[in-house]
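Risk register update: the risk of archive-format incompatibility is retired. Evidence:
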Amino acid sequence: MINQLPILFCVLSGIFYLGCTSNLPQNQRQDNHMEKFEWRPTACAPHLYPAKIVKGDFIFEDDSKIYIPAKWIMYNGWGDAGSAHIVGDDFKAVPTQLQITWVSYIENKSYTGTFKLPQRKIRELFEQGYTDQRGLKGNFSTLNVGLAPGGTIILWIFGAGLALEIEQFQATETQVTMQDIYPDAIINIDEYIQEGLQEIARDVEEYGTISSENIPYEAWSKKYRKRYAWTPKFTFADGGQHTKLLARFYNGEHYFVEHTNPLLHEDKTWAVPKYYRVNWTDKNQNKYGAHIYFDEAETFAAFNQLFDQNKATKAQLNIEIDKYNSNINIFLINENEKIELKPTRMNVYSMD
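Archived output:
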């Protein structure tokens, strides 16, 4: 009987371990001493600057990989989620490297690189989560790779209602052949790219204005990524309450939150806003909404004037709604300066 005690102890220990790990949070598991989280890879490219991934992978500590969906032309928008394949285990470790090669159509160039990822930063975000639009804890579920002309790569982490930039990388030029994309292809890479551009031009009206001569390379690598210490503020001429805000920023980040969400009040920095969708109620509990599309040149000029030229350390973006709930005035202000912004398009509507 004495000889059976070690066996009995091992069995009981195994049962105890399984019971403990099964009670871990849904977004976190222990497997071979590596934390695992439920996430998927995806990719994007700027709307007017399409890209095609030839091969892309997130690589883990044990040298295993998960591929980034590839083989079609992406122009889904900077920071927007693309296709996400359901492959492998739902729960995955935090990757240590990104390895990717892609074709940039407008440039007729290809880029490649292998990059070390900020593993600790990504792990902490997966562990901590965030406060979602319902005021509950949300979990990040996607790693999104953005591919821009000039070889700029941006990595974002996504959850429902929140996208945050993780890191920027710089790829180098490389040579890609048609056999790298489709082994049985009978046309060359130049013909393939031209056919792709013609196909896109039929779907995208603005495409005629884009050429390899006017690519704003620094937009994705520098301009859009600049951050400032500012917060939104809502004022109502005849009583009212801001209820929800969907904010999209030029650097590809976004959030969709209730008015009580800490993101709106924390001492954080954000990029220049690109789009707002605002919801509010008036004093009689009638519901309203507005779509606001900020003018890129005007808005960047205002932030530059207030922060870079006049050295402001903080500012507010005031959304001022009139007593009829039909018109909105917008100002970027601090204690010394007030700059009015005129959006390119704004639509105010009743939700009742």
